Amino acid sequence: MEPRVNPVYRSINRPLTIWGVERGLFFLALMTGVGLFNFFGSLLDGGIGFVALWALAAWTTKRDPQMLRILLNSSRARSRYDAAKFELPHIRVVNHV
Q1: Contact assessment for residue 33 and residue 49, using Cβ atoms and an 8 Å cutoff
Q2: Could you count the other beta carbons within 10 Å of the beta carbon of residue 54?
Q3: In angstroms, rounded to a whole number, what is the distance separating the alpha carbons of residues 96 and 62?
Q4: What percent of the chain has pLDDT over 90?
Q5: How far apart are CA 3 and CA 45, in angstroms?
Q6: What is the pLDDT of residues 36-64, one digit of tens each?
Q7: What is the mean pLDDT of the chain?
Q8: Phi/psi at 22 (nearest 5 deg)?
């Protein structure tokens, strides 16, 4: 019996990006740039804001492409009790005379 070989393509495991930035982060940077343009009334301010956020998003995408998903899902998760961490409880003794 010969083993079955299934081809796996690299594009399946790559994140979907626009200009090298994860799509959600790209649109966040784009909308923030548009908001800055509307707020300040200057195309230069909107462009600078977009480019700065795009550069930050590109760095984040290269470092960890799933960072946005992790951050958004972390707000819904409860913090868990870790029994391995030992902390003495703070007890205050009050004498009533």
Answers
A1: yes
A2: 21
A3: 62
A4: 30
A5: 59
A6: 999 998 999 999 999 999 999 899 888 88
A7: 84
A8: -55, 140
Nearest by Cα to 21 from 54, 68, 48? 54
Spatial distance between the Cα atoms of 27 and 35, rounded to a whole number of angstroms: 12
Residue type, 67: M
Query: SS in 3 state form for the chain?
Result: CCCCCCCCCHHHHCCCEECCEEHHHHHHHHHHHHHHHHHHCCHHHHHHHHHHHHHHHHHHHHHCCCHHHHHHHHCCCCCCCCCCCCCCCCCCCCCCC
The residues, any chain, with a CB within 8 Å of residue 64's CB and separated by 6 or more, are 70
